[in-house]
Amino acid sequence: MQCSSCQFENMPGVSNCGRCGAVLNSSPTPIDVYPPRARKWTKPFRRYFYFFTRHRIIPANLDRGLDRMVHNRMQELYDNRIPWRTLLRMFVPGWNQFYFNRKLQGRIFLWGYLFSLPLGILFAGTGYGGLLLGAALSLHAASIIDIVIANTRDREYRLVYSLFSLILVGMLTYLPAVELVTRYATPQQFLLNSPPFQRGDVVLYNTRAYVQTLPQIGDMVIFRLPNMRVPVGRQGHANVLVQFVGQTLIGRVVAGPGQQITFQNGNLFVDGRLSPWSQAFSEQYTEAYLNIVPTDRYFIMTGLPMQIPQQVWLNNTIVKSDSIIGKVYFRTQPLWRFGYIR
Amino acid sequence: MARFDKLEFNTPQKPDVDPEEIKRDDLDENYWINKATDNRRAGLYENALKYYSRALEKNRLLVEGWVGQIQMLVFLDELPEAELWGRKALELFPSNGELLSGRAQAFCRIGNIEQAYENCDGAFQQTGQSAYRWIVRGEIMTCTRQEKESYCFDKAQEADHDWLVPLEIAIIYLYYRNANKALQRARQAVQLSSESPYCWYIQGCCQLQLGIDGKARESFHHCLDLSPRHVGAGQKLIELDRNRWSPFHLFRRLFRLF
Questions:
Q1: H or E stretch including B125?
Q2: Which of B160, B126, B158, B120 is nearest to B140 (CA)?
Q3: Is B257 in a helix, a strand, or coil?
């Protein structure tokens, strides 16, 4: 009887082929000839969640005469290498996943990043902005770690390559970007109402605005005050002191060094002329007051009431030029008042 | 009375019988194998799988049927099923080279390269030569990005001069996103059989992946000329008409630079 697999002629009555072992006679038990089929949802599921595909490159050009230990080591290095082009593609989240035909992961990383990052920048300075920026960075890091795991086999190499890639991408992209952005656009959120700003407003300030120039009249600036203790009264023979913790305030430069400030009937006069911002502060500044701004200082109106002790008020409004951190120029929150600050 | 003789009361109706079913019992396995091959050459893998199964109904010891089923399951991207079926077939026909190659192909596409190599090496150790063993070997080398895969595919074409061999090699290259080499093989298939619509369709797919839209359109038109009801070619032409240049497509192509 001829075997249908290898065409070997067997003796009659033999159930299996003498050469290849194939079954010669149909067995009494029925053989199912219909193969199992994947369900309708299984194939797309496998295509999208193809996490366990591993392509291992067998080093074909290894010299067979090498020592076994060196051979194993080279094999290990070859199996765990990450090409420089893969490293280059790590700078864009999802690019490596697209390249290695893992499109679903690529789409998640890329579109998640493109969604989170601009929104995070828009809401920078708020809690939501922090969350969104954190999500964007996490997605980028996840895309890097995902491709490192897909390209390497051993745990040690995965750890080393992951750390190396994350540090590389962080140092070359995020660090310079953050350094650049924070110089020219640092967000600051208002925790209290401070006319013309309200609680919750987020503004951007430029720390490099006054490196080569001086603050101008009308500039909105952010400045920092030192801690101080102010006597507010006496109790017996001792002064009652109140501690004012140094804080960051935002205000408008109304008068420069050497200029004369006068309040009369709720109006502010600078060098005898009515200040354009007088109306903005007319409710707080009702007392008549005369002062000349010392050199190297600026008179900044912050919206603080004059009812606080005079020394405190003076210290908070007549500010040294080196206490000025930067120029406030843009408001990002709330969105209905998004725009430049004039 | 004569006029009431022809009335029917509760007569059992004969069930409707499918003419195909009547014919089916009279046909042997060779008929179904030929039909499966014709469908395979037309790219209709589901039908081919069905006809291979019918051939095996007639003769369960037909190795060609088992091999064809595994190949169709691989082409239909049902890889775990193909591997399982290959294992089952090897229980009936142990050490059959074609079945080992089929299982190796399934392992390769699943991603288990070690098992793929084992089965492929096992297939070469068996007696006989076939184009399919060389094709699978070449596929494993393509998957692992080795440089000598074209040698294996050339050996496959030497073993079998049929146009289906370069065409299936082109399909393998397309699966691994190597449209350049796929186009070379597809052109060989078209030269060997310019009357086969499926050859033109695969050539058009290769040209489409390479961005040669004009040539792709011509190839799909050739396919439709030969087979006016070819669904795949029609859909591709509609996509080509829709996908004009746009910043989105430029953005997508940027990802393919490296």
A1: helix B113-125
A2: B120
A3: coil
Interface pTM, i.e. ipTM: 0.71
Interface contact flag, A34 B255, Cβ < 8 Å:
no
Q: Provide the shortest C-alpha distance from residue B13 to chain A (in Å).
A: 33
Q: What percent of chain A has pLDDT over 70?
A: 74
What residue of B is the nearest CA neighbor of A59? B146
Query: Can you list the residues of chain A whose pLDDT is less than 70?
Result: 25-30, 47-80, 195, 227-235, 238-246, 279-290, 303-316
Residue A200 in tokens: 């919750």
Question: Looking at chain A, which residue has its C-alpha nearest residue B256?
Answer: A99
pLDDT of residue A68: 47
As a whole number of angstroms, the distance between CA B186 and CA B210 comes to 13
B81, B93, B127: residue with CB nearest A22: B93
Name the nearest CA neighbour of B135 among B112, B177, B105, B94.
B105
pLDDT single digits (tens) B198-250: 999 999 999 988 888 889 999 999 999 999 988 889 988 888 887 656 666 66
Those residues with Cβ within 8 angstroms of residue A93's Cβ, 6 or more apart along the chain or in another chain: A109, A110, A112, A113, A139, A140, A143
> B110 — contact with chain A (CB < 8 Å)?
yes
Cα distance from A20 to chain B (closest Cα, Å)?
A: 6
Distance from CA of B102 to the nearest CA of A (A): 14
Which residue, B104, B92, B251, B256, is CA-closest to B172? B104
The predicted structure's pLDDT at residue A53: 42
Q: Please give the single-letter amino acid code of residue A285.
A: Y
- Residue of A4, A6, A35 with shortest CB distance to B61: A4
d(CA A155, nearest CA chain B) in Å: 19
Q: Are A49 and A104 in contact (CB under 8 A)?
A: yes
Contacts of A22 (CB under 8 A, 6+ apart): A3, A4, A5, A6, A16, B61, B63, B92, B93, B94, B96
Burial call A91-100: b when 16+ CB within 10 Å, e when fewer: ebbbbbbbbb
- Size of the A and B interface in Cβ pairs below 8 Å: 89
Residue recorded with tokens 């080393």: A160
CB B72 within 8 Å of CB B40: yes
For the stretch B7-66, pLDDT in tens is 655 555 545 555 555 555 667 888 999 999 999 999 999 999 999 999 998 888 889 999
Q: From the list B63, B80, B84, which residue is nearest A5 (CB)?
A: B63
Specify the amino acid at residue A225.
L
Amino acid A57: pLDDT: 36
**pTM of the complete model:** 0.51
Q: What single-letter DSSP state applies at residue A203?
A: E
Closest CA to A259 of A312, A203, A216: A216
DSSP codes, B3-46: GGTT--SSPPPPPP--HHHHHHHH--HHHHHHHHHHHHHTT-HH
| A33/B92 Cα distance (integer angstroms) | 12
Measuring CA to CA, which residue among B208, B238, B237, B242 is closest to residue B223?
Answer: B237
Residue found by looking up tokens 């864009």 in the block: A92
Chain B CB contacts of A88 under 8 Å are 258
